[in-house]
Amino acid sequence: MPKTIHINKLAVIGVGLIGGSFCRALKRANAVTHICGYGRNSDALQKALELGVIDSMATDLAGAVQDADVVMIATPLGAYADIFAGLRDHLSADCVVTDAGSVKGSVVDAARTNLTAEQFRRFVPGHPVAGTEQSGVEAAFAELFDRHRVILTPLEQTEAQAVQMIEQLWQLAGAEVVQMSVAEHDAILAATSHLPHMLAYALVDCLAGMDEQKAIFRFAAGGFADFTRIASSHPQMWHDICFANREELLTMLDQFQQQLDNLTKAIRADDRQAVIEMFTRAKNARDHFSKLRATGPIPKE
Amino acid sequence: MPKTIHINKLAVIGVGLIGGSFCRALKRANAVTHICGYGRNSDALQKALELGVIDSMATDLAGAVQDADVVMIATPLGAYADIFAGLRDHLSADCVVTDAGSVKGSVVDAARTNLTAEQFRRFVPGHPVAGTEQSGVEAAFAELFDRHRVILTPLEQTEAQAVQMIEQLWQLAGAEVVQMSVAEHDAILAATSHLPHMLAYALVDCLAGMDEQKAIFRFAAGGFADFTRIASSHPQMWHDICFANREELLTMLDQFQQQLDNLTKAIRADDRQAVIEMFTRAKNARDHFSKLRATGPIPKE
């Protein structure tokens, strides 16, 4: 069972799908007294306030994080360096900072560069492996993290108490928390998330040109819809992820291109045995993944 | 509204997901008096009989199609040539033959080669753009084709009456029928169905090797699940599709590889403008497709 923890003030930097859902999940758990939202778009913050996602709003970072026990950063990755730099002079002495970014190496670098050494020891890098192709606070919901995994990637110098606090908050938000190294996180996510997004974007862009002549999308069915759903994701957010995890992503792109090249060559060479073997290995692995999902912490929907 | 049509005997060659669902949909519409199922696996046919999907079973082709008004071929594509050859001496004079294969060029070639010229004029090539990653008669259901498109690709010499009959049957089965040329069908399906299946198989096989070391599938979320669902499809069926539509598929594979190569180069060269432009074009096209689906004949699920 998650421990009971209660914090007085949470500051959420970036109240979109992830930040907003984190707020809603913690309110559902009665885990926080006051949530202050910060963002550059005051209309969106106003909306978050009206929806009851946050209790107050601030358009200056200093005001937002004043007296905060915890600061959650949930903006696109491109904004992180400025945010860390902006936080440096305004965090309370014991404030724990965490984030929800999809890449951890570049985030840790930005935190190390821009926070004080003291603050950096209380920075807990995190990544909720959850989301939809939607974005914005209107899409936020309290159940987003239920039975989903949150990966924390603390460093050797990260304070154990800070890690424990963030772990408990995520548990109260419904998630199962696991820890791994920054490098392992970035390699795994490049494979299972960042690469598939690149493939979906590339495929849809490739077909969009054909569609102009032939209206091909009219004849696409459910398989295509599922396969390309992630190509509706937020372009700026994925641009940021792409460059924040560039080296790991390029490694995976190379591996995938090699694999696709092998398949293409087998088809061209009429090597039917190689093709059916690849399809069979893939089906077995995908069926294994389905079983994992059916029994694991991640819900089917 | 679909015309009312009633046929006395339908023979279904291959009673799997598609063949079985066609039977169930026509029974739901009271469109047929008797359905005889044929297949090489008598256990599966027995199952189809027990489930009430078919009314009788036959393990010899001649018996199955005796006195049949319509023959529906719904096996993997690799079996078609033998089936057409086997039908040649056993079809009733007015029997209309149709099929549900995902590729039309190779099917039309096999029909032309193996049927008499007379029989070939009553062969109506068809493709229901529907399916799930499941296979087998147990997965068949009457609603599979509801509000889905069925593409017929009749040739110049195909009898108009035969085309009309198959069109009406599919309408009674719940589908919307459209017609296009064989070449257009095979190009469109290579783009929206066959290529995505290749990418899903290649991705999952690529990651399966990594997974052995790192258990990466444990940290994959909903986006990955949707993206790779089609990699659970029947390997033999997709092997057959792959080689039956080889030239169109190779063309699409080349186009896609070029596109992915452009994206990879842009990431490597730090060309952020090119990356965000591609993602934005893709998102716009995918959102457009979502709207088509919401208003078109294809259901959301």
Offer a quick outline of the entry.
The structure is a homodimer of 301-residue chains. Chain A is α/β, with parallel strands linked by helices and 301 residues long. Chain A is 53% helix and 13% strand.
Report on the architecture of this protein.
2 copies of one chain form a homodimer. Chain A is of the alpha/beta class and 301 residues long. Helix content of chain A is 53%, strand content 13%. Chain A has helices at 17-28, 42-50, 61-65, 80-87, 105-114, 117-121, 160-172, 182-214, 222-228, 235-244, 246-268, 272-295, and strands at 7-13, 32-38, 56-58, 70-73, 96-99, 123-124, 126-128, 149-152, 176-179. In chain A, the strands form 2 sheets. A 6-stranded parallel sheet of chain A has the order 3-2-1-4-5-6. In chain A, strands 7-8-9 form a 3-stranded mixed sheet, covered by helices on one side. In chain A, helix 4 runs parallel beside helix 5 (105-114) and helix 8 crosses helix 11. The two termini of chain A are 24 Å apart. The mean pLDDT of chain A is 93. Chains A and B meet through helix 8, helix 9, helix 10, helix 11 and helix 12 of A and helix 8, helix 9, helix 10, helix 11 and helix 12 of B.
